[in-house]
Automatic annotation (TrEMBL):
Catalytic activities: (8S)-8-amino-7-oxononanoate + S-adenosyl-L-methionine = S-adenosyl-4-methylsulfanyl-2-oxobutanoate + (7R,8S)-7,8-diammoniononanoate
Cofactor(s) this protein cannot do without: pyridoxal 5'-phosphate
Designated gene of the protein: bioA
Protein name as it appears in the record: Adenosylmethionine-8-amino-7-oxononanoate aminotransferase
Protein localization: Cytoplasm
Residues that bear N6-(pyridoxal phosphate)lysine: 250
EC code: 2.6.1.62
A GO-annotated cellular component: cytoplasm
Molecular function terms, GO-annotated: adenosylmethionine-8-amino-7-oxononanoate transaminase activity; dethiobiotin synthase activity; pyridoxal phosphate binding
Length: 402
């Protein structure tokens, strides 16, 4: 029996069975569904993308996987070189893993050991954001701040090692002044907090964060698993404000196979580069640098450049703003739009009861959560397909109006 994610198995509605997928569409045996959320925000070029599929098949004809312990191979070497040249600043050192959550774990471990390796044993604390979501493994849950996902940690009580602040500059300045040399890192989802409610904030907060991290000697981590590869309208938010550690996943492979990477700058890397074995990063996911995933990632990056994704996302945002301009309903708290993401937040979670099935019946796959109805569309949608997604959203409110 399959144990499905984020579901009470006893009461869950039967999932839709997908029999095929192509472009932005999912197919069941009796329906063609426009995917409005890119399979948890990862399938940014659509399903069965020819160039990525071919890259995977070509690599599979040679070998699918070898461990990176004592071995290496061309796909991982070429991907590492491409990322080092492609990413901003001196984000040159790539540590691969098999999921975004694990890649964040690696980043947090790097940050702590960076100071341990320097003999700064007091820097045990992490600064994070309220409403943060960084994954479902234990350390990522601890730096997260959403009890709807991570209520199980309540049995441990509040962690003395993690502080959460709102996206307010004054609160951030106060936290840095208070904890000073106890902090090892400040981790954020830059500009767009995904699973915490599609919350959006201003770049000025991140610019000030960079200044404070420099001032107090704290590492800045950007979790761009969801925001990277164009989602916010920037190629990466790291292009605007440079972190010390960058975490990428989801769109890294165009969503065709699981893979993630934690990319460190020279300062972080050199704190581990030593004759002393104890200073090595003792971490090693079995499938890190998987050859199929590296081939997919190389093809995905080539597509990003070929398709001029930033221009596409700018157009998606313009159409989104046009379609949702002036749309109101007494049950809506706020409508938020940034790049390739749109969110309709309602006051009462019950307002969205039944929306997923309604959307299915109108040819759209959606998965609202809590009181958030949102879209995170594939970048390949044409205008007609994009308009359809918002038309279905608006029709829901009209049909259910009291």
């Amino acid at each position: 029996m399959i144990w499905y994610p984020y579901e009470q198995m006893k009461t869950m509605k039967a999932p839709y069975e997908i029999v095929d997928a192509e472009g932005p569409y999912l197919y069941t045996k009796d329906a063609k569904l426009l995917d409005s959320i890119s399979s948890w925000w990862s399938v940014i070029y659509g399903y069965h993308q020819p160039q990525i599929t071919e890259a995977i098949c070509q690599q599979a004809s040679k070998f699918s996987h070898v461990m990176l312990g004592g071995l290496t191979h061309k796909p991982v070497e070429e991907l590492s070189e491409k990322l080092a040249n492609w990413l901003p600043g001196d984000l040159d050192y790539c540590f691969f893993s098999d999921s975004g959550s694990v890649a964040v774990e690696v980043a947090l471990k790097m940050a702590l050991q960076y100071y341990v390796n320097r003999g700064e044993m007091r820097r045990t604390k992490v600064l994070a954001l309220e409403h943060a979501y960084h994954g479902d493994t234990f350390k990522t849950m601890a730096v997260g701040d959403d009890e709807d996902y991570h209520f199980v940690l309540q049995v441990y009580g509040k962690s003395p090692y993690v502080m959460h602040i709102p996206t307010e500059i004054s609160a951030m300045e106060e936290a840095f002044a208070r904890y000073k040399d106890e902090l090892n890192c400040f981790i954020v989802e830059p500009l767009l907090q995904g699973a915490g409610g599609m919350r959006m904030y201003d770049i000025a907060f991140l610019k000030r964060a960079r200044e404070l991290c420099n001032q107090y000697g704290v590492l800045l981590i950007f979790d761009e698993v969801a925001t990277g590869f164009g989602r916010t309208g920037h190629r990466f938010v790291a292009d605007v404000v440079l972190p010390d550690i960058l975490v990428l996943g989801k769109g890294l492979t165009g969503g065709h196979i699981g893979h993630a990477v934690t990319v460190a700058n020279k300062k972080v890397y050199e704190s581990f580069y030593d004759d002393t074995p104890e200073k090595a990063l003792m971490h090693g996911p079995t499938f890190m640098g998987n050859a199929l995933a590296c081939a997919a990632a190389k093809a995905s990056i080539a597509l990003f450049e070929q398709l001029d994704v930033p221009a596409r996302v700018a157009h998606i945002e313009a159409v989104t703003r046009r379609e949702l301009a002036g749309f109101t309903d007494s049950r809506i708290r706020e409508i938020r739009i940034m790049g390739g993401c749109a969110c309709i937040e309602v006051y009462d979670i019950k307002t969205l009861d039944g929306y997923q099935q309604f959307a299915y019946e109108h040819g759209v796959f959606a998965r609202p959560f809590l009181n958030y109805l949102y879209s995170m569309v594939p970048y390949i949608l044409n205008d007609e397909e994009l308009v359809k997604i918002f038309a279905v959203m608006k029709e829901w409110f009209r049909r259910t109006e009291k």
